[in-house]
């Protein structure tokens, strides 16, 4: 008791068909199917856009498989570092 049996659901479906008619019910189900298809297409578009953004960001940052070169470049002067001290003079008096 308390739950719907197969017969309850069948009677409910027959009443719905009588109220709405076969053609209108068919059209409603077709509209529901079209809505589901457009929803799925929208979801796949969002996933594709997220994938494209991730690929673009990955290409900007470089491949994570490639190691990052952290060795200093001697040709580029560091603007923050103080200048090196002058070399000791080679003066014999000194």
From TrEMBL:
What is the stated purpose of this protein?
Part of the twin-arginine translocation (Tat) system that transports large folded proteins containing a characteristic twin-arginine motif in their signal peptide across membranes. TatA could form the protein-conducting channel of the Tat system.
Subunit architecture:
The Tat system comprises two distinct complexes: a TatABC complex, containing multiple copies of TatA, TatB and TatC subunits, and a separate TatA complex, containing only TatA subunits. Substrates initially bind to the TatABC complex, which probably triggers association of the separate TatA complex to form the active translocon.
Q: Which UniProt keywords apply?
A: Cell inner membrane, Cell membrane, Membrane, Protein transport, Translocation, Transmembrane, Transmembrane helix, Transport
Compartments reported by the entry: Cell membrane
Name of this protein: Sec-independent protein translocase protein TatA
* InterPro entries in the record: TatA/B/E, TatA/E
Q: What is its main location?
A: membrane
